[in-house]
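Aim 2 progress. For CBS domain-containing protein, the working sequence is reproduced below.
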Amino acid sequence: MTGLRVRDVMSRDVVTVRPDAAIGTAIDRVLRRGHTHLVVVDDDGVLVDIVSAHLLTTALMTRLIERHQPLSDVLADPAAIRAGARLHEAAGLMMALSVDALGVVDRQGRLVGVLTWADIGRSVAPPLTVRAERRAPG
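Predicted C-alpha cells for this construct:
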C-alpha cells in the first residue's frame, strides 16, 4: 500500500447530486445505482460535501429531517484529498476525520473521484478467486 496513490484505487463512476436537490430524491437516485454516498457538487463540479446515504436514511426514519428538504440543510465541509496523494495518507485522513469516504479533487476543487474504505480494501486484498481457492476443501 505504500507505493499506491489515491488515483490508483479511487472510484471514478460517481453519481453526483446538487445541493438544492430534495434529500429523498437524492437518496433514491444514489441507492438505485448501488452507491452508498451522496456526492454533492455545485454547477461547476466543485465538491460541496459527501454524505452517507445510511446516515441520511436513518435521519429520515427518526424524523430529524424530511424527504422534501434540500440537501443544503444537512451539509458540512467536505472531506477531500488530491488524486496524487499516497494511499496511506488518505487512510490516515479518513481515520482522523472519522469518515468512510473522501472526495478526490483536482487543484480547483472539482470532483474527479471518490475514495472509500472498500476501495482501499480491494487494493490490498487478494483477488476473489485466490480467496475462494484457499477456502475450498483440499
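The mean pLDDT is 89. This observation will guide construct design in the next reporting period.
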